[in-house]
Amino acid sequence: MKPIVLSGIRPTGQLHLGNYLGALQKFVKMQQEGKYESYFFIADLHALTTNPDPKVLHENVKNVLAEYIAAGLDPEKSTLFIQSDVREVAELYLLLNMHVGIGELMRTAAFKDKARKQLGITVDNPDDDIEDVARQLIGNNSNKRVNAGLLTYPTLMAVDILIQKADFVPVGKDQEQHLELTRRFARRFNSFYNVDFFKEPQNFNFGGEPVKVPGLDGSGKMGKSEGNCLYLTDEDKVLRKKVMRAVTDAGPTVPNQPMAEPVANLFTILKLVATPDKVQFFTDAYNRCEIRYGDLKKELAEDILAITAPIRERFKEIHSDEEYLRRVVKRGAEQAREHARQTVEEVRRIMGIHPF
Ligand code: TYM
After folding, report:
1. For ligand 1, is residue 22 a contact (CB within 6 Å)?
2. Are residues 294 and 262 in the same domain?
3. Which of 143, 168, 244, 314 has a 20 to 30 A CA-CA distance from 287?
């Protein structure tokens, strides 16, 4: 039996370079290695936590599916499916929630961040505890609302993983906390029912550290809600323009000067897309105070385009073939449901739900 790999991406728009370098590129490499049984899906139920327009959601599911295939995922080698097609996920979500604490969900970084955004609360330190959020949510004169789906986002993510008994879950750095919770829920379930049932999944990064792709606007990560994305489907001109506009500084004035965050961010992306020689060349130039950021940005844009332009070209063709896409997810759903059905049957039995 091969180890099981599973991961997903929310259909909240076109995929960006962070999604690619943090996740999708690893999916493709793992598939190519042929050592795993792989499941890759489109997390449309997770996208519902932010109440998208139904038409837009549907379009985005199709976009991500076509981008998966354009980036190299092959439905003959990996099971590609849409999360909501696996109805068993909804059932296990209900069952697993009985063993998940409201407090631990409220303390996750992603929840605090999103809840604060929805409530319009700004804080200096995002790690601060959540009295501010809790007060607004519980106080009965608050007319603001954060939906329960957002709070239980980690339960749903744990269910995606545990229902397929995944060993490896390739995700970017921002998802590590959710993975840690998944392991905790698995251990808790096993110990409560005294079974050795759920596996504890691990992130996978080919031996390296999990990736966090920064934005080019100075600080923080690349993300849709940050509005700083380089999209896989950006035309050459658009992408070059975005990279050339990246924030830098006035340049180093003393040799080996530590890099300011915006400059370090450019190098972080360069390391992920360029040859080691090129990275060394620009690092040396920086350390000697001879760097020309314009040259660095030009090279960076070309190296990014070398990755994204072929994906963009294939995307157009795949996206227009609806019949093919329909067949892919129909077969994917059948394969994913087979596994999921068995897991849910077992969980029902373990929890004491069985026929007379
Ligand atoms: P989402 O859509 O937010 O992110 C999808 C993947 O892209 C990675 N990512 C990044 N990696 C590095 N740098 C960035 N700037 C960056 N931005 C995004 C994320 O780490 C992630 O791997 N909750 C998941 C979706 C999901 C899932 C699952 C994943 C639902 N169920 C089960 C694995 C297993 C998410 O973050 O989606």
Report:
1. yes
2. yes
3. 244
Q: Is 170 exposed, middle or buried (CB count within 10 Å of its CB: 0-12, 13-18, 19+)?
A: buried
- Residue 84 shares a structural domain with residue 26: yes
Catalytic residues: 114, 221, 224
Q: How far apart are CA 179 and CA 174, in angstroms?
A: 10
Q: Which domain holds residue 18?
A: 4-100+152-212+322-350
pLDDT tens figures, 91-119: 999 999 999 999 999 999 999 999 998 88
Which of 160, 89, 97, 161 shows the shortest CA–CA distance to 344?
89
Which CATH number goes with the domain that contains 251? Answer: 1.10.240.10
Cβ distance 6 to 161 under 8 Å?
yes
- Is residue 265 domain-resident? yes
Distance from the alpha carbon of residue 293 to the mean position of ligand 1, in angstroms? 30
Work out how many domains the chain is built from and give that number: 2
4 C-alpha to center of ligand 1: Å?
A: 18
Q: Are residues 96 and 180 in the same domain?
A: yes
Return the number of other C-beta atoms located less than 10 Å from residue 315's C-beta: 22
Q: Which of 48-57, 123-132, 168-177, 232-241 is the least confident region?
A: 123-132
Q: For ligand 1, pick from 49, 156, 175, 222 the residue to mutate: most ligand atoms within 8 Å of CB.
A: 175
* pLDDT tens digits, 30-73: 999 999 999 999 999 999 999 999 999 999 999 999 999 999 99
Domain CATH number, residue 202:
3.40.50.620
Residues 296 and 266: beta-carbon distance below 8 Å: yes
Q: Residue 131 domain-assigned?
A: no
The mean of the pLDDT values for the chain is 95
Q: Whole-model pTM?
A: 0.96
The pLDDT confidence band at residue 128, using thresholds 50, 70 and 90, is confident
- Tell me, using a 6 A CB cutoff, whether residue 23 lines ligand 1: yes
Distance from Cα 325 to the centre of ligand 1, integer Å: 22
Domain for residue 355, yes or no?
no
